[in-house]
Amino acid sequence: MTRLDALTAIYPQLEQQIVVTIMGAVAAELQSIGHRPNFFYLQHAMGLASSMGLGIALSKPERQVVVLDGDGSVLMNLGGLTTLARYRPRNLVHVVFDNESLLSVGGFPTATATGSDLAGVAAAAGVPRTATVGTLDAFRAAFDEALRAGDLTTLVAKVEAVGPSGYVTDLSLLENRFQFQRYLRS
Amino acid sequence: MSPVSVAHSGVVYDALKRTGIRLMSALPETWLVHLIRMADDDPEMTLVRLAKEEEGVGISAGAHLAGVKSAMLMQNHGFLASINGIVSCAQLYHIPLLMVISYRGEFGERDPWQTEGGGVTEDLLRALRIPFSYLDRPDHVAARVAKAQTLALSANKPVALLLCRDLMWEDA
Questions:
Q1: Average pLDDT, chain B
Q2: What ranges do the domains of chain A cover?
Q3: H helices present in B42-137, as ranges
Q4: Do the chains contact at B23 and A59, CB–CB below 8 Å?
């Protein structure tokens, strides 16, 4: 499964959600499918996308939030999984695209390449629903189930270490930020 | 019984709440114990207890975009630990961020382990061009908190209030 295929598979559902992504390939690929005002791309601050998702989920409990994270970013904020679990926002689905590498900075392997299990870490942190999937069909089904479950879920999708040819898009960071704020507050 | 001032903690808490803050993220330290307890006991306040302070930058950024005013309560070492998030989330994305920082390691500090962080706190705030002020007397707390929040919101940037020993510690 490629991350682009996975994003394409869930894109119709993302149209209705508040979406926060990490930087790099996830942001560029989601924009390549189609930017929407309800999508925010945190283009730096590795690790904090899930924290931003928590802040939004706590502030807008009536809306569902999807965080599109990555293995390298989650590894920079493992403690954040304990904070997520502690407050257990039932309106947050935390997807982790795990390509076992830091793809955008040379493809060096992360600790998940040598066996660290992020769904296992999330479960041990107290996240009530966790799963790891390795195929597109399983990912689509697990994501749909997570949206329906109405509980905090960390869904790890094992994806190939391939990405777009570039990461800079024509959407400026601040344009995205203010458009997203207007969307959230409207 | 710790000599951290309950009365002055209450003055700070009330001032924060009067500016409309409804979410506080915090990592405990001695000077913050009463403030955190007040937030925890207040049904109108969402308290988010963190594993590490930098998470609070992301939580506050998300809350702000969603229209909820927030503050971070942390020790100056927590500020040191948050700097990447402050720069690459709050400053990069022009997010107002009210940081209430206990200023350990200044004159009067008895704990040797706090002294190094105290010595670099103000220089780091200046290097990051973060406007800051001191909360060192109860009579000016309300005005300084309100003004800090006003600037954070008009400038869309992080600001800091340093909780000083003279305010927080009863036998300073």
A1: 96
A2: 3-185
A3: 54-65, 76-81, 83-85, 115-127
A4: yes
Q: Name the fold adopted by B6-168.
A: Rossmann fold (3.40.50)
Q: Tell me the whole-structure pTM to 2 decimals.
A: 0.97
Q: What is the pLDDT of residue B2?
A: 73
Which residues 6+ apart lie within 8 Å of B59 measured at CB? A51, A52, A54, A55, A58, B23, B25, B48, B50, B70
Find, in chain A, the residue whose alpha carbon is nearest to that of B85: A45
User: What pLDDT score does B143 carry?
Assistant: 98
Task: Tell me what percent of the residues of chain B surpass a pLDDT of 90.
Answer: 97
Q: Is the dihedral of CA B96, A64, A97, A174 positive or negative?
A: negative
B96 touching A (Cβ < 8 Å): no
User: Which candidate, A138, A128, A132, places its Cα nearest to that of A84?
Assistant: A128
- In chain A, what residues touch B61 (CB-CB under 8 Å)? 48, 52, 55
Please answer yes or no on whether A44 and B89 come within 8 Å at the CB atom: yes
Q: Which of B70, B93, B157 to mutate to test the interface with A (most CBs of A within 10 A)?
A: B93
Answer whether A126 touches B (CB < 8 Å).
Answer: no
Contacts of B46 in chain A (CB under 8 A): 58
Instruction: Count CB pairs under 8 A between chains A and B.
Output: 110
- Break chain B into its structural domains and give their ranges: 6-168
Q: Write the class of the CATH domain A3-185.
A: alpha beta
Could you give the CA distance from residue A14 to residue A65 in angstroms, rounded to a whole number? 9
Write down the ipTM of this complex.
Answer: 0.96
**Residues B46-93: tens digit of each pLDDT:** 999 999 999 999 999 999 999 999 999 999 999 999 999 999 999 999
Q: Is the pLDDT of residue B172 over 60?
A: no
A126, A87 contact by CB (below 8 A): no
pLDDT score of A3: 98
Q: Is A151 helix (H, G, I), strand (E, B) or coil?
A: coil
Question: Average model confidence (pLDDT) for chain A?
Answer: 97
A60 touching B, CB under 8 A? Answer: yes
Tell whether A25 lies on the interface with B, counting CB pairs under 8 A. Answer: no
